[in-house]
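Researcher: Sequence recovery benchmark, item below. Answer with residues only.
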């Protein structure tokens, strides 16, 4: 059962978008599909959440965009990571791993360790 968007930690969508775009330029729907693919279909991002995140990340300078043609010959906005976005992705990834390690330690604690 895939977690619902509301169940994801705040800020998680931004880092997932940054990671997806770091793997190569993508149009909006492609970002959604890339996240789904990387997660092994365990995460499903809704378009209503994705596009505000793309706008927010572009507005803050973490990604930029240019218009191009999609695979089905439609006009599409393609996103790519900026230098600021690469820095943010590194920083946020480190924070995420630290938090995951802390939560993992809590969840694996035994009565003998306390």
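Model:
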């Amino acid at each position: 059962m895939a977690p619902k968007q509301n169940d994801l930690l705040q800020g998680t969508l931004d880092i997932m978008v940054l990671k997806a775009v770091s793997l190569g330029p993508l149009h909006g729907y492609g970002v959604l599909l890339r996240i789904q693919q990387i997660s092994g279909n365990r995460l499903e991002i809704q378009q209503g959440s994705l596009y505000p995140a793309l706008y927010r990340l572009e507005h803050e300078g973490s990604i930029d965009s240019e218009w191009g043609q999609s695979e089905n010959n439609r006009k599409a906005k393609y996103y790519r990571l900026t230098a600021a976005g690469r820095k943010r992705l590194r920083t946020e990834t480190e924070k995420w791993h630290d938090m995951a390690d802390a939560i993992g330690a809590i969840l694996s604690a035994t009565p003998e360790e306390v």
